[in-house]
Amino acid sequence: MDKIASLCKRRGIIFPGSDIYGGLANTWDYGPLGAELKRNVKNLWWTTFVHRRRDVVGLEASILMHPRVWEASGHVQNFNDPLVDCKTCKARFRADHLIEERLGLAVEGKTPAQMSEIIVEAKLKCPNCGNATLTEARQFNMMFSTTIGPVSETGTQVYLRPETAQAMFVQYKNVVATGRVKVPFGIAQIGKAFRNEITPGNFIFRQLEFEQMEIEYFVKPDEAAGAFEEWLSAMRGWLRTIGVRDDHIRVREHEQEELSHYSSRTVDFEYQFPGSMGWKELYGLANRTDFDLSRHQEVSGEDLQYFDQAENRKYIPYVIEPTFGVDRTCLVLLIDAYDEEETIDVNGKPDTRVVLRLHPRIAPYKAAVLPLMKKPELAEPARRLFDELVSATGALIEYDETGNIGKRYRRQDEIGTPFCFTFDFDSLDDHAVTVRHRDDMSQERLPIAEVPAWLSERIR
Ligand code: GAP
Fold first, then answer.
1. Does residue 119 lie within any of the structural domains?
2. Residue-wise over 268-286: b if at least 16 C-beta within 10 A, else e?
3. pLDDT at 200
4. Which residue's CA lies nearest to atom 22 of ligand 1?
5. CA spacing 20 to 30 A to 191: which of 49, 265, 437, 444?
6. pLDDT tens, 83-98?
7. Which atom of ligand 1 is nearest to the CA of 325?
8. From the alpha carbon of 328, which atom of ligand 1 is closest?
9. How far is the CA of 146 from the centre of ligand 1 (A)?
10. Range of the domain at 91
11. pTM for this structure?
């Protein structure tokens, strides 16, 4: 993970948030290349699950919602982490994480009092200062709140949404009324979510502010189990589309006591992270039953029943929710793609080649056009090829004419550019360029006229 974080900083993929002020823990900024990577992930997800499906429509809702939304959803009451404080050094920890890490015990479903008992019995000490001065565990709500209005005492307290999902329930009635949708159908959204996370983050794995891509899929109650299986396989299909390694993924069913307050069945797609992190949640799939719509109906007083014309009856649909973290997607793509290869440099000396084997669909730059030398007679036709590639593919293409060609290839390897087109002096006569492949460094000659179609086919 350290190597990946350092490559990300060095190459402008991901920077620590507020870096020049010493950083702000658990916040990260995507640099020029990371912004492209993230955008590619989000665009591909939207194309896959909204544009290519006739049963899913999109939504883009406000981050701030009426505070009663979070009472109805159960987040005010239930969205808590059990925390302990150290009386000596004042550090704060997740009680469940502490017990899991120190004692290897799973404590899902245990109350704070039960966790406190385990901590006392095992004489667990503060991981920060080593003193046995941890407080009792107590619940701590993870929602960030702020105030609307100029004066905090009289203003309205609102929350920064901890999941994008609730907007899909709150706008469900408007979508049904205007969207020409019929059950079964889904509403999809990509957007920011905020959680006051205490446990330090493992690079971008756990952040205070992150992005989710979520679908709330509304179904007839007796069809929920079948829809769950269909989404399970659609989520597997997505992982293949973006090129995540199959053997790094496992699907884990939640135990009864581990289920969130709204779920009757949840599975996590877990990814095998490097080092001590091990298997951790990448995505989730939940059967939220009619919990959310029923609660919003109760609290808002609006009738949220669906009238099923075919069956001539009203019911509250069940909801199957596939949820995907954008940042965790970027993280696993980077981890899967990162490779170090022993090779020899241009002077025949042993060398290590760092290469990001990103799928061409996801890679920030799809190709680089590299004139062999910085000479006008090469630059001018190379620029022409660059312009043609940009307009033929609509993708981000790099143009780089500075420095030695071997070093330029290595830079492209490190940022995951799958193909380089090198324009040399022979190109002026044979109207062909050298295509250099990132993954095996092989080279072939290709007529310039064929390059735009050749590239378009490989990045689709
Ligand atoms: N609407 C359901 C929901 O929010 P969740 O499992 O709490 O479920 C969904 O979150 C996804 O959001 C996770 O699978 C993960 O990918 C991502 N996620 C959750 N908390 C995160 C955090 N603090 N930092 C980065 N990503 C996070």
1. yes
2. bbbbbbeeeeeeeebbbbb
3. 67
4. 206
5. 265
6. 999 999 988 899 998 9
7. 16
8. 16
9. 21
10. 80-141
11. 0.93
